[in-house]
Amino acid sequence: MKRTEFIARMEEIAPVELAEDFDSGRIGLLVEGKDEIEKIACALDATPEVAKAAADGGFDALVVHHPAFWNSMHGVTARNAEIIRPLIKADVNLYAMHTNFDHAEGGINDALAEELRLKDCVRMSLGVVGTLTTSLSDVAKILGCGLRAWGDVENISRIAVVGGSAFDWELIEEAVSLGAEAYLASELKYNMALESPIPCIEATHYALEAPGMRALSRREGWTFIDGTPLTKIIE
Question: Do 69 and 80 meet the contact criterion of CB atoms below 8 Å apart?
Fold first, then answer.
């Protein structure tokens, strides 16, 4: 397909208008490569390692969730150069879909709920509330990371799951209004853990959002490049 067709397909999957305002200028086509696109890779992050893997693998495009460049650039240096250099050299397109893919149907949060085998799901403004069909120990195994729980989570049934750094008062209140008895996201702050009306469960950012990109890769027939960070629970 032509690059214009590829972009149209990306915007069909995750319409740009669904993105939060802070994503302006950070999503869409970030690096322009070849005009003919057939072989596509997908990852959560455009790290230097992932960019090199996409270039070395002969891919025509790399689709990621997180914007590769958060700050305006007046020069391509340091880490930004490490990302861009192999892509430019191999003529690889780089495309990012961030909060627009969080909000999209079949996006990050819907995929997370499916991965965790939640039933009777209700979509939040960002996230999903559903009924657990497994134990929290099984949830940890599915995600491949340890979980940190604040509050009593022994007998919860309905849980809110939100990909990424999403411990937010308004979202927690919305989850409670939809019957959630606990809230799962990443990067929990101490004051929120203390004051939340329902127990908070913290997983890693990568573990909560990678399922969405893996699911997208499967649906589209792309190749997923795993960039799981090395983490370990030390007790």
Answer: yes
H-assigned helices in 35-168? 48-56, 78-90, 99-103, 108-115, 136-143
pLDDT computed for residue 224 by the predictor: 98
Tens digit of pLDDT for each residue in 124-141? Answer: 999 999 999 999 999 999
70, 27 contact by CB (below 8 A): no
User: What's the CATH class of domain 3-101?
Assistant: alpha beta
* Phi/psi at 36 (5° precision): -95, 120
What is the three-class DSSP state of 210? helix
CATH superfamily of the 105-210 domain? NIF3 (NGG1p interacting factor 3)-like (3.40.1390.30)
Please state, in angstroms and as integers, the Cα–Cα distance from residue 149 to each residue in 74, 85, 120, 185, following that order.
43, 41, 23, 11
> Degrees (nearest 5) of the Cα angle 30, 36, 42?
50
Residue 20 is which amino acid? E
Residue 22: CB atoms within 10 Å:
11
Gap between the Cα atoms of 56 and 40, Å rounded: 13
This prediction has a pTM of 0.94
Alpha-carbon span 170 to 232, nearest angstrom: 31
Q: Reduced to 3 states, what is the DSSP secondary structure of residue 160?
A: strand
Rounded CA separation 78/75 (Å):
10
